[in-house]
Amino acid sequence: MALLELDSVTKRFGGLLAVSNVSFSLDRGEILSMIGPNGAGKTTAFNCVTGLFPITSGQIRLDGVSISGLPPHRITKLGIARTFQNIRLFAFMTAVDNVMVGAHWWMKERVWDGAFQTKRARSEERSVQQRALSLLDQLGLSRYAGSYAREMPYGLQRKLEIARALATQPRLLLLDEPAAGLNSHEKVELMQLIARLRDEGLTILLIEHDMRLVMEVSHRIVVLDHGEKIAEGSPAEVRTNPRVIEAYLGTGASEATRSA
Amino acid sequence: MVKPTKGVLSIASIAALGVLAACGTTSTPTSSSAGATGIAGCHGTITVASDMPLTGGDATDGPFPAYAAQLAVTQANANKLMGGCTLKYISKDDSTVLKNGHDPAQGAANITALAADPTVMGVVGPFNSSVALSEIPVASRNHLALISPANTNPCLTAVVAVCSDPTIAINTASLYPGPHTYFRVIASDVQQSEIDAYVAYSVLKAHTIYVFDDQEAYGRGLALLFMKYYKADGGSVVGSVSLPGATTTFSTQLSVAQSKGAQAIFFGGTTGNGCGLVRRDMGSAGMNIPLLGGDGCEDQLFITNANSGAKTSEANGSYATSAPDVTKLASSATFFSQYAAAYASLPAPYNNGTKEPYTAYGYDAMNILLHAINSVLVGNGGQPPSSSQTFRDDVVAALRQTSYDGALGHTTFDANGDTTNTGFTLYKVTNGAWVGVNTYAVDTSGNVSVKS
Amino acid sequence: MSDQSGTPGAAPGGTGGRTGAVTLVDQGNLGPRTSEGSSFFGAVTPIFRFLYSLISKNFGALLLALIVLSIFGTFLQGGATLMGNQIKNALVLGAIYALVAIGYTMVYGIIELINFAHGDVFTVSGFYAIFIANTLHLNSLATSSFGGLLLALAIVFPLSMIAAGLTGMAIEFVAYRRLRDAPRLAPLITAIGVSFLIEGVMLVREGPDYVTTGQASWINGTAFTIGKVAVGYTDLFVVGTALLLMFALGAFVQRTRLGKAMRSTAQDRTAALLCGIDINRTISATFFIGSALAAAAAVIYSINYGDVKWNIGFRLGIIAFTAAVLGGIGNIVGAGVGGFLIGLIYVFGGSLIGGAWSEALIFAILVLILTFRPVGLFGVEVTTRA
User: Fold this and answer.
1) Which of B233, C44, C95, C170 has its CA 20 to 30 A from that of C29?
2) Closest Cα partner for B439 from B211, B189, B151, B192?
3) Does C291 touch chain B (CB under 8 A)?
4) How far apart (Å, rounded) are the C-alpha atoms in residues C278 and C386?
């Protein structure tokens, strides 16, 4: 059974069809990329999956169970985590605190535990902090653990966002343009990271404009244009799909084909 | 206007006052033998009126003096005070639904309507100083006598130093476009503050004082007048402050007062605006000096507030001056029993005149008016003067000559129309209650003397 | 597109252009231009800009200098005793402002709402404290012995704080939650409505006059005397309790799971939501804690002053709000410090130039902060939500 299924998902804002009757599914351990020109509805689809936008019609299923209509924090608990196109870290919290916020939902500490600093609270806080520090360490962020997120270099902020998402113990990770603004060295690191996450069993849904990265890491690619799915298939299939080339004409099709 | 409050009075002191005041006749104006024969042939209609707030939020106060005034008219009719002439009475209500009580605009309209009736020779009212401000000019323009039972604002009758203060801002001269036709049977805050100054300097022996006021017309006026007279008495005001009624703590200013060596604190204002809280904070600051206030402070709430702080008996030793409780005057006893008899059928509390401090004031005001009319008739050969305006002018002139012994004691008016029947009792909190100490009177040149 | 044929009579015709030809571009004004206005303003504007930036950069230092000067002025005026007494008065007042200010700042931080009902929660808490103390006969307990006092405090504080916290949560649930994504003005108006509603209920239930709490006698006596300034146990209690609660709150927000949830929600609600944080519960918790601190302030007030009134929270609330703005609205530490600064300004301003000016002074400060330093003394520019 597929981990995530989008079944005829439609999202309408007033008269605008942002996502129109889109269906696709993700298997466990798969990396699926969503590509398409700007305004194709990719981020809207993310927002629908994570519950930020209620969908107009259709169904989104996780493990075969519908998650449409659930509030975002419940969906997070079910195992979907995400990053944002424009980084949304907690700017005035330290890196380690940012990651610990990701651990919020599964921590057992109750209000009174925290208020009275019970033994349980303290030991849990310690272990969660250890976990957060180790996440930072593995992503190469340990020297920034105590800095405010806003003080970190841009590339590292992207990584920190991924660390925070990982702290929520996801089964499915949604990455929204993780390579945007990264230099080539950082992009290589990102690719390695994505590969490692895949190897560790995480399922990944990726939005990305960098076609080299997309073609390299994706198992399959879904192409959206004007809210509609116009193609789906392996990188090789998508690359040669005439509709895809058409959709990209004038926006980056030539670049897409060149870099592929 | 601040009502004398219904604090617990010292029976001894008031009884003593009563003995003094009761030297006149009883309140029933049956002694109109003066010209009974001369006016028997009087013909025509004479109308008197009252204007009080009778409904809305003022329904607990205004009806009492109105009923008392009506009683005076009823008695005058029974005694043929106007001889053969018909004596009519009109009761006006200056309350509006809009204001849920007294409304100056309604008051002015009432007086305008009454003045248009050529038989109306005088009005008892109004109850509130704010209404008086709009009624006095109308009465003056129409030469109509207006006798208030309850207005205490000094600026209604005379320009005193405080009238131009922004919180009061009353141009007394502009109130009288015509002749001065306004009188009152209650003492004004000028007399009260003269007595307060005397008490502070000569009784409490405080030669330096710090003065608070509550930024309202009554409180600020009283404080300003107090400071003037206190300085005239030789005292030194070491500081003063106007704080809004919502002030919750006075410790900052009390620390200032303390550092300036104030020997007493004066509070011009009402308990609701902090009089008791000042006393409370004095306790917290450890200030063992007297607090003196006006009639706005003399109530049970003061004691509650003052005792609410760390020192639960802080109120003890606080002082306030207030109008004598007329129910304790021997001269008023007959009136109150007559009132009770006449209005036995009214629902409570209106069947008991002692439930409102101004009831007797309404009664005396109407009687004074009726006697003035009577004396005009007598002086005019038993007949009303030919023109209504002449009649009204004559009534005002007769009012100036008033020398009347009634429920309140002996009343005469000074040149401004203010009663000379002044008297304020100094109360002191003793064991959680206001107890009268002495009653003081002040003469027209400002000399204060112990009445009792 | 052709300009000759397509737009008949569109352009009024350039004065310097070819006569007769209809142009879209005003030909006469294509030359160089200057943006200068009158020479006077041109000369004066940089001075104003300089002054503005000078004041806004050094706002804290200027304010502090003003406070120190006024303390010194008070010393010159009334000597060390007056100065000491006023510092004591200022700290007592400031402690209460600080606790109330924290509630404003927490709520603003998390939902960007000026919760005008907060001052009234303070008032209601005062009445809760009276009810609790009277029902459980705490007044006699507290005055019986030191142990009894501690026990009474240990009862009245948590119970009032819980009751107030629940009140705050209820207000949020009923009045603000549905308006969370409405235009900013809508919940603000509701907040004012809730404030009036609470005041109305208090007025009817408790009457127009001060109500004696009976708690002023709980703590008595002079702890020590510096010079001629007697410092009472009550003064120590007020300031000490306030500081203790503020530090406890600071630690709570920094360390605990809920504290982190609150901070992250305040900084980016969507991101927090997607980290699995239940925003509604977090906001409820924020109202609970803010209101509980207002209740602590009310109990302290009640023990210090001994009476409460249906509308005392209104003015106190606005002054505390000013303290929150001074410290940087949304900033908890700032609100605490702001509370004490406002206490100092209120008392020393009132002492030096007359108490009638105290509140005018406070609101002048409010205007100055909003003009020169809208982020407050300690506020950092908070990123706007995307």
Assistant:
1) C44
2) B192
3) no
4) 20
Range C76-372 classified under CATH 1.10.3470: yes
CB contact under 8 A, B312 and C217: yes
A114 contacts C256? CB cut-off 8 A: yes
Q: For chain A, which residues make up each domain, given as ranges?
A: 1-79+170-260, 93-169
A1-79+170-260: what fold?
Rossmann fold (3.40.50)
Tell me the domain boundaries of chain B: 27-187+329-411, 190-322+423-450
For tokens 């009347």, what's the residue?
A: B404
- ipTM (interface predicted TM): 0.88
Strand, coil or helix: B244: coil
Residues of C in contact with B280 (CB under 8 A): 305-307
Instruction: Convert the pLDDT of each residue in C208-241 to its tens digit.
Output: 788 999 899 899 889 999 988 999 999 999 999 9
Q: How far is CA C222 from the centre of its chain?
A: 32
To which residue do tokens 């008070």 refer?
C74
Three-class secondary structure of residue B241 per DSSP: strand
Note the pLDDT of residue B376.
95
Question: How far apart are the CA of B166 and the nearest CA of chain C, in angstroms?
Answer: 14
DSSP per position, B396-432: HHHHHT--EEETTEEE-B-TTSBBS---EEEEEEETT
Residue-level pLDDT at A153:
92
CB contacts, 8 Å: C276 with chain A = 73, 76-77, 102, 104-106, 168
Q: Closest to C351 (Cβ–Cβ): which among B243, B256, B308?
A: B256
Give dist(CA B17, CA B22) in Å, integer: 8
Separation of alpha carbons B228 and B161, rounded Å: 8
Question: Is B255 within 8 Å of C82 when comparing Cβ atoms?
Answer: yes
Q: Given a cut of 60, is residue C384 above it in pLDDT? A: no
- Non-local (6+) Cβ contacts of B184 within 8 A are B147, B148, B149, B150, B151, B156, B157, B417, B418, B419
Q: Dig out the tokens for A106 from the structure.
A: 């599964």
Any B CB within 8 A of C143 CB: no
| Residue B321: its H or E element | strand B319-322
Q: Name the band, by pLDDT with cuts 50, 70 and 90, for residue A255.
A: low
Question: Cβ–Cβ of B304/C234 closer than 8 Å?
Answer: no
Topology (CATH) of B190-322+423-450? Rossmann fold (3.40.50)
Inter-chain touch A168–C276, beta carbons under 8 Å = yes
| pLDDT per residue as tens digits for the range B76-132 | 999 999 989 999 999 999 998 888 788 999 999 999 999 999 999 999 999 988 899
Query: Quick check: do A and C touch, 3+ CB pairs under 8 A?
Result: yes
Contact by Cβ (8 Å): B350, B343: yes
Residue B4 DSSP symbol: P
Over A95-133, what HEC string results? HHHHHHHHCHHHCCCCHHHHHHCCHHHHHHHHHHHHHHH
CB C245 within 8 A of CB C157: no
Hey, which chains touch B, using 3+ CB pairs under 8 Å? C
Whether chain B lies against chain C with 3 or more Cβ pairs closer than 8 A is: yes
**Class at the top of the CATH hierarchy for domain B27-187+329-411:** alpha beta
**Nearest residue to B227 (alpha-carbon basis) of B247, B241, B245, B246:** B241
Closest C-alpha to C212, from B254, B313, B171, A215: B313
- C318 close to B (CB below 8 A): no
CA distances from B43 to A17, B76, B82, B393 (A): 97, 16, 9, 19
Residue type, C255: R
